[in-house]
Amino acid sequence: MESEQLFNRKGYYRNSYNSIASASSDEELLDGAGVVMDFHTSEDDNLLDGDATSPGSNYAMSNGGGVMSSTTHLLDFLEEPIPGVGTYDDFHTIDWVREKCKDRERHRKINAKKKESAWEFTKSLYDAWSGWLVVTLTGLASGALAGLIDIAADWLNDIKEGVCLNAMWFNHEQCCWGSNETTFAERDKCPQWKSWAGLILGQEEGPGSYIMNYFMYIYWALSFAFLAVLLVKVFAPYACGSGIPEIKTILSGFIIRGYLGKWTLLIKTVTLVLAVASGLSLGKEGPLVHVACCCGNIFSYLFPKYSKNEAKKREVLSAASAAGVSVAFGAPIGGVLFSLEEVSYYFPLKTLWRSFFAALVAAFVLRSINPFGNSRLVLFYVEYHTPWYLFELIPFILLGVFGGLWGAFFIKANIAWCRRRKSTRFGKYPILEVIFVAAITAVVAFPNPYTRQNTSELIKELFTDCGPLESSQLCQYRSQMNGSKAFVDASPNKPAGPGVYAAIWQLCLALIFKIIMTIFTFGLKVPAGLFIPSMAIGAIAGRIVGIAVEQLAYYHHDWLVFREWCEVGTDCITPGLYAMVGAAACLGGVTRMTVSLVVIVFELTGGLEYIVPLMAAVMTSKWVGDAFGREGIYESHIRLNGYPFLDAKEEFTHTTLAREVMRPRRSDPPLAVLTQDDLTVEELQGIINETSYNGFPVIVSKESQRLVGFALRRDITIAIENARRKQEGILLTSRVYFTQHAPTLPADSPRPLKLRSILDMSPFTVTDHTPMEIVVDIFRKLGLRQCLVTHNGRLLGIITKKDILRHMAQMANQDPDNIMFN
Amino acid sequence: MESEQLFNRKGYYRNSYNSIASASSDEELLDGAGVVMDFHTSEDDNLLDGDATSPGSNYAMSNGGGVMSSTTHLLDFLEEPIPGVGTYDDFHTIDWVREKCKDRERHRKINAKKKESAWEFTKSLYDAWSGWLVVTLTGLASGALAGLIDIAADWLNDIKEGVCLNAMWFNHEQCCWGSNETTFAERDKCPQWKSWAGLILGQEEGPGSYIMNYFMYIYWALSFAFLAVLLVKVFAPYACGSGIPEIKTILSGFIIRGYLGKWTLLIKTVTLVLAVASGLSLGKEGPLVHVACCCGNIFSYLFPKYSKNEAKKREVLSAASAAGVSVAFGAPIGGVLFSLEEVSYYFPLKTLWRSFFAALVAAFVLRSINPFGNSRLVLFYVEYHTPWYLFELIPFILLGVFGGLWGAFFIKANIAWCRRRKSTRFGKYPILEVIFVAAITAVVAFPNPYTRQNTSELIKELFTDCGPLESSQLCQYRSQMNGSKAFVDASPNKPAGPGVYAAIWQLCLALIFKIIMTIFTFGLKVPAGLFIPSMAIGAIAGRIVGIAVEQLAYYHHDWLVFREWCEVGTDCITPGLYAMVGAAACLGGVTRMTVSLVVIVFELTGGLEYIVPLMAAVMTSKWVGDAFGREGIYESHIRLNGYPFLDAKEEFTHTTLAREVMRPRRSDPPLAVLTQDDLTVEELQGIINETSYNGFPVIVSKESQRLVGFALRRDITIAIENARRKQEGILLTSRVYFTQHAPTLPADSPRPLKLRSILDMSPFTVTDHTPMEIVVDIFRKLGLRQCLVTHNGRLLGIITKKDILRHMAQMANQDPDNIMFN
């Protein structure tokens, strides 16, 4: 008993040193590129050298640590904590079961200790509260960063057009706040704000100043784009793109070191501002999710509960992504549902609650910063006051069809372009590519007011209904007011004036421009979100349809469909609502989100009233999109990059059996196995050197093939190394045994080596007749890395996650070699 | 090929006749009490007679049907569809894996057929759309029924007080709509509405008429209560209670026949109205979930996809419960989250989307019915206009503590009382009990205006802020207005008048009354929801605290905490907000809901503003409640009734191993197993007769103990029966074999019987060293019924869901024999 306590205190149990070990090596998680390894087919034979940490699957330690080792066998030969045990290599898949067992073990230990002293009790309280602390911190940081990005992007965006003479750091709107020009039409013009032409040439009007402004616009756009891509290229290559495909993969249990690190956070924040300001057809909403996840990852390092456990860390990341969407769209509930529906893999109820909390905290911080000066979280918050009518469902569904078509087209075109970029020399000059795209965008965008302005502002203008105070070109209807302004809210439908017709032409051009540029922009080496460009495309299409329906109703109010509810002089059609429905439909077509998208847009409008049009459009868009290909843009990019992502949404519907998928195949060499008590150290090392597998099943004997357990390559090498260093009498001819008691040996044989403690005695097994649909279900739901296949109690083969992904790709007639990591 | 097609058309494959068979027996699902059976320890040896359908676990059929049987072995001896195969017995647990496989098989079959003809294609379209159709129908029906119940309960409730002379079917409010009395104080008094005293005695005022009204109130309350309990007792015993514990259990994969049937629906709808009108301390919100689930279940019978598959049917039920909460609280998003957080077990994303749709449809139908005349879905929708201040978090958190204490106290007291009712002769007289409780409620409730009125109306009054138009006693502040009514919305804080003090006393009495009566009411044999009484208790406590803080701020506005933000003449404290926070806290304490509760209340207030107070209170309430016992009221009632519910929220934190939980225990007789090829029919029947297990592992031989598969008792008996009837030469001495090929037998032996087709060749196995936390995880996530335990490839024992539940009860120091069903 005495000695057991001693061991216990010094942390000689397997579990104890696991925790210590992982602490030291987890701190390196933020840097380092790491070696790409492959579980079952890796060519890398250097594993034995120990310079690469190998992925482990030893959840058996919870036997070993919890019950078995405390009563029977202690790890008598591994006397020092071994760095790297319990952590994973870069680009490897984690073992959810093991991670969860590790956490429960940690929890048990803290619970057992907490009555010992006040200090331990405090520590246990800290541990219990750390989940809430980390999501609070994440929410605070995400909200603050989102506010900062909003303000900075606004300011930098206006720099392209001019400068505030009073105070350089004011954007156009802030500059003119103090101005005397109070009419709405002129509110953007004030003497303090000088366009570049006004500043350099001294005159605001005329063709010369137009060209000057044009030139300065292009100059700034190119400068911002160049700076953004340079920073990304030099400091943090992971900062490019939207980040959501990678976050989905990471949340499903994959390790990409540095993807959520401090450098990525810093560079992504800065370059996001630059990229948005450069006028490229991209948004900041997707990257905000990445930024929030970086915050979550960084804060999780303050809490050992999260930093040392990859599964627990993913709970924080799920909450962080909810916070990210919450600040991106001002929709806390939508953010939680986005995290649940779109990005998360393992989403227990506790995470739901914490995600909600993080989303709320982030939203409140952003609202206190108030970046848009409208006490709303987003620029394009709207409130409509007129109801919709049943007949309008037809145009709404048409918008849904448009959204689905756009989504399918965009995904196909963008993936084709990205594949071309990957495979040809286009991809070798990312800086040039960005500058080229930015130059075209700027040159084409400037002449058209709808493409020149900030995309968020464009969306806001398209969403907003025409009231009497609205000065936009889109609202230049021919006045029919009889002098009375009784209904300020509900301005009746009117015939369109020349301004509206001009606006429609410009909007059509803007639509074509946005569609083309977005395809080439998403995938550039700058931070680039898809939400805003997609919404803009949908909003433009929607507004055009809305105005068309409105004019139709005005000129043909005697048609049957309009007669009942759309009299002359009533306000029956709201073109802004069409814009919103179109935006939702296009976003739905691209991302294939459903509930979360409707809830996000619902939170933007603040009324249950418009959920039915939204649902009709989003559902139509999803079905139309799915008809052309079931994958959303994020899944397509995951597949493009070959990440091992086992989608929980996709059903496996084939009738194959486990034996058809398992290795070894009929033509392969037999499975490399270890026998439990008749190998020597030399033979064992031989097997390890000859194969590249990351783990070996242990069987009773070659004759019986009965499965005993599973041992990881890395654990075996470490154990042998240690034993030869620390234990006397371990020679190359020493017998290795995994059993409880040493085998009976000849008298002159050297001291045997006991390796039972590194044996996972509860490997997952299925029979060879198990349908693959069940196997896939098990892998998904339990988060396995590998599973052994037996027949009548005899070991037959092994199935890894990669085998399953390859098999699924094969069944879907895709290239199975696309799956690159394990 | 010819014969295979023939077989195929006639449905001779195992899967085909399964579907046909289950069709015929599923129609019986709505009636019949069924025999309570126990998987592993049942004493019922009559199973062989075939008069009880036995639960099946033959998901192997998807091998058998999908790949194996279509290529190799046909079921050559089972020529007729056997009724009952593929269905479950009453009070038995379903096998999720099998059900899901069955559905995928069905889906594959439809997909394969759909190109054959236009009719098949139409059928496949119908199949694809049936999910949306069934949730639409469910939403429509739930919304309509909720509206009906609301209107009927309102009318019946007013009948207790008087009658409308113009039109009997008008309630008090509708009766007085046409009245000339337009002042708000007098809006309830109109000549058309006669109190009973006015009608019978001819005078409205005076002690005589008070006593007359009192008498009539009690008379009607008792009549309604008697009628309600009588209907429940005679026609549908399952209609009593809130139904949520049973729905949780059903959704987790348990069969309770008739619980969601048409009789339950009809009687529950009628008696719910009566129970609410009787004035008992109960609400209609919980039972509305039950009503919605009944609708979902009944409509699922229209669609073979759902009626024939217990797992798919539960998807509809999840959506239905979302619709139920949606109409109960007018909170579609809250309803979906309630379904996700509180009741559902298996909640794939498709269900999320459909739940949302069902919830929306139901909400829209209810709003078109407009039962409250305020175009809101609930009576107590409110909008506040004043912000809250940081200091107010202290009283909010105190309300949370109160809510947690109330929840813990209520659960303990209610469970103790229900246990006493179950175990003593109290439970023998449910009708008397209801009448007794109703009488006490009516007698005590009448004199106090706050208990006399409808609980929903009480909540509405407590939630509503005092505006200048408010006539309630709670708003009788001493006026300090200076004649100006500049701020209509924000009436400044004022000193309380005598009306407020009187109201506070009455509220205190009402609080005590509600607390006591609710404990005795929940569990009566009438439909009874908990939401409204809990919210009422919280709202009373909250309003009292709110008024106290308000007065404190008025009289001590120079205190440091008030000085900054609560000047005289400003409106800084909203007592209605306190009522709402208190209501949420109390409901949270009782149910331990978190996110869904906050979202439901958020949807009631229509503003993000008040989410932080709500969250603070709900979180506090949950933590305080959890300190006294982690179970909410629904889990407690599940445990009280001994349902086999494996809670996904509760973590299993013990360190036991599978071998400590599995049967047989050390002292038990050895596991009953079948050998694969050396039993005779007689020996097999002997094993079946001697044991009561519902299934038997099949092993290679007694010596090797290597596992081949798992065969269900029911399948074996049916197969033997059929073979002896249909196949020539099968005698009692015939050899039974489960292998692919017949064993070599002596020349004179009778024809052997091949039973491979009923063998599940992919049973789930774990090793004896597997920690129970992993086993519990597997059972939860995959929805298993049983799992075999092996050691080094040899079969060792079996773990059933019931074994796990017993073990968990044992580890929690509870009575393991409490778990009654399997």
Automatic annotation (TrEMBL), chains A, B:
Highest taxon, organism lineage: Eukaryota
A Pfam family the protein falls into: Voltage_CLC
UniProt-recorded Gene Ontology molecular function terms: ATP binding; chloride:proton antiporter activity; voltage-gated chloride channel activity
Stretches that traverse the bilayer: 217-239, 259-280, 287-304, 316-340, 389-411, 431-450, 503-524, 536-557, 577-602
Protein family (similarity comment): Belongs to the chloride channel (TC 2.A.49) family. ClC-3/CLCN3 subfamily.
PROSITE patterns: CBS
InterPro entries listed in its UniProt record: CBS_dom (IPR000644), CBS_dom_sf (IPR046342), Cl-channel_core (IPR014743), ClC (IPR001807), ClC3 (IPR002245)
Entry's localization field: Cell membrane; Early endosome membrane; Late endosome membrane; Lysosome membrane
Functional summary from the UniProt entry: Strongly outwardly rectifying, electrogenic H(+)/Cl(-)exchanger which mediates the exchange of chloride ions against protons. The CLC channel family contains both chloride channels and proton-coupled anion transporters that exchange chloride or another anion for protons. The presence of conserved gating glutamate residues is typical for family members that function as antiporters.
PANTHER family: CHLORIDE CHANNEL PROTEIN, H(+)_CL(-) EXCHANGE TRANSPORTER 3
GO cellular component: early endosome membrane; Golgi apparatus; late endosome membrane; lysosomal membrane; plasma membrane; synaptic vesicle
Domain called CBS: residue spans: 662-728, 759-816
Main localization (coarse): membrane
This protein's UniProt keywords: Antiport, ATP-binding, CBS domain, Cell membrane, Chloride, Endosome, Glycoprotein, Ion transport, Lysosome, Membrane, Nucleotide-binding, Repeat, Transmembrane, Transmembrane helix, Transport
Membrane topology: Multi-pass membrane protein
Protein name as it appears in the record: Chloride channel protein
SUPFAM superfamilies: CBS-domain pair, Clc chloride channel
